Amino acid sequence: MNCRNFAPMSEYRIKHITRYTYPAAVIDSANQVMLFPLDDAQQEVKKHELLITHQPSVEVFADYFGNKVGIFSIIRPHTQLLIESIIQVITHEAKWPVHDYDAASQWENLGIIRDQFPYMDFMLLEHIDAKEEITALVNSFKNKNITPFNIAKDMCAYVYNNFEYRKGITSVETKVDEIWQLKAGVCQDFAHVLLVMLRMVGIPARYVSGYICPKGKSCVAKVLRMHG
Predict the structure, then answer these.
(1) Which of 39, 84, 90, 227 could cysteine-pair with 68, CB 3.0–4.6 Å?
(2) DSSP letters along 112-180, please?
C-alpha cells in the first residue's frame, strides 16, 4: 500500500494491492472484496477504482452493518489474481467536543439508548474470563461528572500506555482474554480491548478499519476510513 498526500494536506491517494498466485491454473474463482472507502461528512471520496485481473464485473451490495461489499467471479484460467484499489479522498477535521459541559445529561441519553436498544450490536459484550479484572479497571474511569467523550479518551490513553505493539504474537482469531494477558499485540488487538472497555461503561462502540499515514513519511498522521 502506497500513501502520499497532496496540497491541501487533507487530500490523499491510496493504492492497495492484493495479489494471489497459484501453482496451477485456477478456473471459476469466486471472490469477495471489502476495499471501499467511506463517504460521509468527515471524508469525501473523489475517486475510487477497482482494477481486477480479466476485468470481471463486480456486484456491490450493503451487508448487515451497512458496509459496501463487492463480489465477482473469474471463469477464465489464471495463475495470478491481482486486485488494485485506487482511492482519492479528502478528509475533513472532526468536530470534537471542547468542554465537559452537561456530562450528566449525556450519560442519561446513553442510558435511554441502552433501554430502547438492549441488543444493539455496538453494545454487545462477548464472554470474557477476565471480566472481573477488566470491570474493576473500567470502574476506575467511571465518573458521571465527566463526559463519555473524555472517558473514552482516558481509556484510549490507558491502552496506549499499557500495551506493547508487537507483531506475530496474535491473529484475527485472538480473543480479548489472551490480549489482556499478553498486554501486547497489534492495532486490531488494541481496538478489541478498547471496545470491551467502552461498552462496559455503556458507550456504544464499533471497529472501523482504515489506513494510517505515518508522520515523517511525506504525510501527516491521518486515519483514512474504510467500509468493513
Answers:
(1) 227
(2) HHHHH-TT-GGG-----TTHHHHHHHHHHH--TTS-HHHHHHHHHHHHHHH-EE-TTS--TT--HHHHH
- How do residues 50-68 score in pLDDT, each as one tens digit? 999 999 999 999 998 888 9
Pairing verdict, β 184-185 and 164-165: parallel
Residues whose CB falls within 8 Å of the CB of residue 63, separated by 6 or more in sequence, listed in order: 69
Where does 2-91 sit in CATH, by number? 2.60.40.2250
Tell me the CATH number for domain 121-203. 3.10.620.30
Whether the per-residue pLDDT at 1 is higher than 90: the answer is no
C-alpha–C-alpha distance, residues 100 and 215, integer Å:
30
Question: Where in the chain are all domains bearing CATH 3.10.620.30?
Answer: 121-203
Share the mean pLDDT of the chain.
Answer: 86
What is the band of 221 on the pLDDT scale with cuts at 50, 70, 90? Answer: very low
Which cell is 181 given? 494477558
User: Which residues of the chain form CATH 2.60.40.2250?
Assistant: 2-91
| Grid cell of 138 as nine digits | 473500567
Q: Distance of CA 164 to CAs 57, 135, 190, 197, 226, Å?
A: 43, 21, 9, 18, 25
| Helical spans, DSSP H, in 63-129 | 103-116
In the numeric block, which cell numbers belong to residue 213?
Answer: 499515514
